[in-house]
Amino acid sequence: MGWLAALAVVVVVALAGYAGWLWWRVLNQQKERETHNAAVLAETEADLEHSMAIIADSLLTGELNLSEGAIRLKVLLDHYHAPGGAQADYPAIYSLFLSTSNMPRGEARDAWPRAEIRRMDREREMLEVAAKDAVLDEAARLRQRFGVPSGREGLASARPVDAA
After folding, report:
1. Under a CB-based contact definition with an 8 Å cutoff, are residues 164 and 129 in contact?
2. pTM score of the predicted model
3. What string of pLDDT tens digits covers the 164 residues of the chain?
């Protein structure tokens, strides 16, 4: 009977050891996952910051029209902040986005009649003129916040946005 008790103790100790080893592996996997997730999040934020810096710089150098820049920045800002969180910090970008978001872009634009496209282009241009100073101020703040992307250092002074 004593050997049966000894065998039971050995089995319990072996199972406890195995359970402890499994628990240790789960803890290590959680730590690795948290480290990996933090690295992915940091990389994603760095990519978003770089993209916003390029778009802001492109707006300021005149390479990108205001409504297209506002659309692109709004999407990036929503991914960078909680959705809508940047709206208070960059109201002109969001306002121009909202004003032009119903206008077709890309291939969808080709399906519209020419007269309607011209009407929408005039409307978009009027919205851009009204929002130009505020959007460019916000783009300058974004460029100041995220820096000038490498390779674009001299572009702002070489090709300034002409006054409208």
Report:
1. yes
2. 0.72
3. 788 888 888 889 999 999 999 999 999 999 999 999 889 888 988 899 999 999 999 999 989 999 999 999 999 998 887 655 677 789 999 999 999 988 888 888 888 889 998 999 999 999 999 999 999 999 999 988 888 877 666 555 444 444 44
Q: H or E element: which one contains 164?
A: none
- Angstrom distance (rounded) from CA 49 to CA 54: 9
CB 103 within 8 A of CB 125: no
Place of tokens 């959705």: 83
What burial class does residue 139 get, using C-beta atoms within 10 Å of its C-beta: 0-12 exposed, 13-18 middle, 19+ buried?
buried
Place of tokens 């770089």: 50
Total Cβ atoms within 10 A of residue 90: 22
